[in-house]
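Below is a filled-in request sheet from our internal design queue. Each sheet records the structural input a requester submitted and the sequence that came back. We keep these sheets so that new team members can see what a complete request looks like end to end.

REQUESTER: design group, bay 2
PRIORITY: normal
MODE: inverse folding
CHAIN LENGTH: 52
BACKBONE (tokenized):
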């Protein structure tokens, strides 16, 4: 997981990556608990790990 800013005004994005498969699992606007909660509330896509 990485939280980084992009653009002017410190707009943040949270990215969850499966390093074994070298793929982005999820990406959400924002950062912190709220963005991470979105990851755990959404169902996993087919082929993605069910738990990190």
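RETURNED SEQUENCE:
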């Amino acid at each position: 997981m990485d939280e980084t800013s992009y653009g002017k005004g410190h707009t943040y994005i949270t990215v969850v990556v499966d390093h074994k498969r070298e793929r982005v699992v999820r990406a959400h606007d924002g950062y912190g608990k709220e963005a991470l909660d979105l990851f755990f509330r959404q169902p996993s896509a087919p082929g993605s790990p069910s738990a990190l």
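SHEET NOTES:
- The chain has a mean pLDDT of 77.
- Residues 10 and 30 are 10 Å apart (CA to CA).
FILED BY: M.R.
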